[in-house]
Design a protein that fits this description.
5 helices; 115 residues; 0% strand
Length: 115
């Protein structure tokens, strides 16, 4: 039985299907980001003027996607606006400027991209 994380290209260290899977993922993501962008609307938060835990869930999820495909996220104006509003909250500035808040790779090197 093949272990998914062990099926790497010798030259790149990345699964041979990575490019194919990534493209399919990006195509699906474009549609889904459009739906989320429409749902968020003009905000500033998901439910309008009220900050809720859903805003933090969207922030975390989209921040990870942004690392993977920043140009795709930037096309979604309402999502970008939501991310900025959360990043600018005075109550969170100490956290965003701390060592606890890190922008490290999303997955370990042995992770397989399955889209």
């Amino acid at each position: 039985k093949t272990r998914p994380w062990a099926t790497r290209s010798k030259s790149s260290g990345i699964n041979a299907e990575y490019g194919e899977n990534k493209q399919a993922y990006l195509e699906k993501m474009e549609e889904k980001m459009g739906i989320l962008d429409t749902y968020i609307g003009k905000g500033p938060f998901v439910l309008g003027e009220k900050l809720t835990y859903v805003d933090f869930m969207v922030f975390e999820y989209v921040s990870q996607i942004r690392k993977f495909a920043p140009k795709r996220v930037e096309k979604s104006g309402n999502i970008v606006r939501l991310l900025l509003h959360i990043r600018e909250l005075p109550q969170l500035q100490a956290f965003f400027n701390s060592e606890e808040f890190k922008t490290v790779p999303i997955n370990p090197s042995f992770a397989k991209f399955i889209g």
